[in-house]
Amino acid sequence: GVSQQVPSIVECVTTTNSKAFKKLGITYHKIAPNLMFGYRSHQKQSTYTLVAEAEKAVIDLIYLNMISKETLEEIKPKLDYEKMRKFLARLKGRGTKKISEWISLD
After folding, report:
1. Greatest CA separation for the chain
2. Which residues contact 20 (CB under 8 A, 6 or more apart)?
3. pTM, to two decimals
């Protein structure tokens, strides 16, 4: 993974309204439907969960204003730039310019 830290809050994305379940330590953030890609399905017994690939998690963090430029610069070397380029090519609409500028994969 990109980070060795264990989060105290599980951050999730949804295409419906944002909602926080503070007692459970879970927060859902609304994102545009066209940003619902880049997740892998992980099955556990009879259910599954979608977990963002590292590159998509970074895109989501920038979109949601949840990452600093300093932190981004620290983790950029650990990202798959080819995968990031493919993800960036899929972006449209609100936030696209900011995400592309912040990531700049030169």
Report:
1. 43
2. 26, 27, 28
3. 0.84
User: Could you report the per-residue pLDDT of 69-93, keeping only the tens digit for each?
Assistant: 999 999 999 999 999 999 999 988 8
pLDDT (tens digit per residue) in 11-51: 999 999 999 999 999 999 999 898 999 999 999 899 999 99
Instruction: Give CA separation, 36 vs 3, 4, 29, 33, in Å.
Output: 22, 25, 12, 5
Q: Are 59 and 99 in contact (CB under 8 A)?
A: yes
Strand stretches in the chain, DSSP E: 10-14, 19-21, 26-30, 39-44, 47-52
Within a 10 A sphere around the Cβ of 75, how many other Cβ atoms?
15
